[in-house]
């Protein structure tokens, strides 16, 4: 069976469309906000990865969101650029239409809640009113683009008969993609497969649209539910890099792509994703947001292809397939065992960067990272891959207005600690010398002296990146201000320097948050 889609032409039943919502649903996660430059960088990486649709934001939410979607639509090619809108929101559709206007191919994604719980308590609407808004929203969206998606928010908890009526109304009004989200991560794989099978069987016109699945991970079932949705007839998958998103996150793009690729015997479907670029994009997102994936994360976690057990090591040495169901190279990892130390030169360092997925760094970034590497190598006998990743991430991260320059400390048991700190603020070096209750407190007090702010420190966590007393410190700092919360990360062989880098990173993210005015009545958790 084939379907004609306005953006993709003829699509056969084996094709699965990848809809990435890292920049919209993913960015709604606490602490994960991005500025315009970071969003553009991620959007270009997603298009290069082979994603079919990039949901760039919710234009009516704020001027910043509108500008982000508009700029991505103007500059990013190779993927459909999608903007979110409420089916019944005032000005939502028009704002989304204007935002995607420069796109090579643009989509409006409108939504409204359909479950009894949401209609009664969130919308305070009767079912017939919801049906009217579905028709109005999709009809209006078709005035701006012929690629229109409609979502039934809380679709997995919607009564089957009413869900069929809603989907039929959306199709009649011009929707070309129908999304049934498991908004709160409540469903099981059997539920999702049954829902899509039912809609395809019962709804008139269902054979002429693409059905889409958007599953949240509250019960840890997002990927399983997504694959079950494909079995039920969904041919678009909505997901995010590293599985980021509201609450427990979304279905992880990298896991879905590799599940489909690895288990062709059970799921004979194909995507356009270049899987060997998955690790690079995953690391880029971690760098931008300051959130690393957990070590045992499937596909992109640092232990995904690591073997410590002697039995496993013996098996892998004889035949990698004994314990690896996919090759590291297929997702961007390298088997390189090159060990770097203080005698290593720039050429070896650049080669290591390439094997770790940083081959496209500019000369200035490489030089800055190499200088920090040489300093680190003077303190450590062995510099591990994780050390390289940490210091390079610090250098390529967009520090916006504030950058760490230097710090001098005096501390001991007989007198208060003193910190002399220099930061670059808006291109100008500023220095403060203050005392505090210990070196970290003195350093943080110096930051406040240089750049006064009212944010409160709610988390300060330090861990070692690798083993040994000479390991680099990885520090996480959480700042809160006016209900906004951001996390920053920093790494350095000196714990206090690591802490300052983390605080500065968090402060820069908070400054970005201050510019994002999001109306309280905007319900953006579509799925």
Report on the architecture of this protein.
This protein has helices spanning 36-49, 63-75, 92-99, 116-123, 127-141, 160-172, 189-202, 222-232, 253-262, 278-289, 310-318, 346-355, 363-379, 385-396, 439-450, 495-514; strands spanning 2-5, 9-12, 17-20, 53-57, 80-86, 106-113, 148-153, 177-182, 210-215, 236-239, 402-410, 417-425, 428-436, 456-464, 473-481, 484-492. The chain is α/β, with parallel strands linked by helices and 527 residues long. It has four domains: 16-289, TIM Barrel; 302-331, no CATH class; 336-396; 402-514, Double Stranded RNA Binding Domain. The protein has an eight-stranded parallel β-barrel, surrounded by eight helices. It is globular, with a radius of gyration of 25 Å. Residues 403-527 are annotated as: Regulatory domain.
Radius of gyration over C-alpha positions, nearest whole angstrom: 25 Å
The amount of helix comes to 25-40%
- Which class of the largest domain in CATH terms? Alpha Beta
Architecture of the largest domain, according to CATH? Answer: Alpha-Beta Barrel
Q: What's the arrangement of strands in the largest beta sheet?
A: 3-4-5-6-7-8-9-10
Distance between the termini: 28 Å
Strand content: 15-25%
Q: Shape, please?
A: globular
Question: What's the total count of β strands?
Answer: 16
Uncertain residue segments: 517-527
């Amino acid at each position: 069976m084939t379907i004609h889609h306005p953006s993709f032409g003829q699509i056969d039943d084996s094709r699965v469309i990848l809809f990435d919502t890292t920049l919209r649903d993913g960015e709604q996660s606490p602490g994960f906000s991005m500025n315009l430059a970071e969003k553009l960088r991620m959007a270009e990486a997603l298009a290069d990865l082979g994603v079919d649709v990039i949901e760039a934001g919710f234009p009516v939410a704020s001027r910043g969101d509108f500008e982000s979607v508009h700029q991505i639509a103007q500059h990013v090619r190779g993927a459909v650029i999608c903007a979110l809108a409420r089916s019944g929101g005032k000005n939502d559709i028009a704002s989304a239409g204007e935002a995607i206007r420069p796109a090579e191919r643009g989509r409006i994604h409108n939504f409204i809640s359909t479950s009894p719980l949401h209609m009664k308590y969130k919308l305070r609407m009767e079912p017939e009113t919801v049906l009217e808004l579905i028709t109005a929203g999709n009809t209006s969206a078709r005035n701006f683009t012929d690629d229109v998606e409609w979502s039934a928010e809380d679709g997995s908890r919607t009564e089957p008969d009413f869900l069929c009526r809603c989907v039929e109304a959306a199709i009649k009004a011009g929707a070309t993609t129908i999304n049934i989200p498991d908004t709160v991560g409540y469903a099981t794989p059997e539920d999702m497969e049954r829902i899509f099978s039912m809609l395809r069987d019962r709804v008139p016109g269902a054979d002429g649209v693409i059905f889409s699945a958007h599953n949240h991970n509250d019960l840890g079932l997002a990927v399983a539910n997504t694959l079950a949705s494909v079995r039920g007839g969904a041919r678009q998958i909505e997901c995010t890099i590293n599985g980021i998103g509201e609450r427990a996150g979304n279905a992880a793009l990298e896991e879905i792509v590799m599940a489909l690729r690895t288990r062709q015997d059970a799921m004979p479907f194909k995507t356009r994703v270049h899987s060997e670029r998955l690790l690079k994009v995953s690391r880029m997102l971690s760098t931008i947001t300051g959130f690393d994936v957990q070590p045992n994360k499937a596909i992109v976690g640092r232990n995904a292809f690591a073997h410590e057990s002697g039995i496993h090591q013996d098996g892998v040495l004889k035949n990698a397939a004994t314990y690896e169901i996919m090759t590291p190279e297929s997702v961007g990892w390298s088997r390189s065992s090159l060990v770097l130390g203080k005698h290593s030169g720039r050429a070896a360092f650049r080669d290591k960067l390439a094997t770790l997925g940083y081959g496209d760094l500019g000369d200035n970034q490489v030089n800055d990272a190499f200088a920090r590497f040489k300093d680190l190598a003077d303190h450590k006998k062995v510099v591990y891959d994780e050390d390289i990743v940490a210091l390079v991430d610090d250098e390529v991260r967009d520090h916006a207005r504030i950058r760490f320059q230097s710090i001098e400390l005096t501390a001991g048991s007989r007198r208060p600690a003193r910190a002399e700190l220099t930061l670059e603020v808006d291109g100008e070096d500023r220095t403060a010398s203050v005392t505090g209750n210990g070196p970290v407190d003195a350093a943080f007090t110096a930051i406040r002296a240089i750049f006064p702010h009212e944010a409160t420190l709610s988390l300060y966590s330090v861990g070692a990146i690798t083993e040994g007393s000479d390991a680099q410190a990885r520090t996480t700092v959480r700042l809160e201000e006016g209900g906004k919360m951001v996390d920053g990360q920093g790494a350095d062989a000196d714990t206090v320097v690591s802490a300052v880098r983390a605080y500065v990173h968090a402060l820069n993210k908070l400054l970005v948050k201050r510019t994002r005015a999001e109306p309280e009545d905007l319900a953006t958790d579509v799925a």
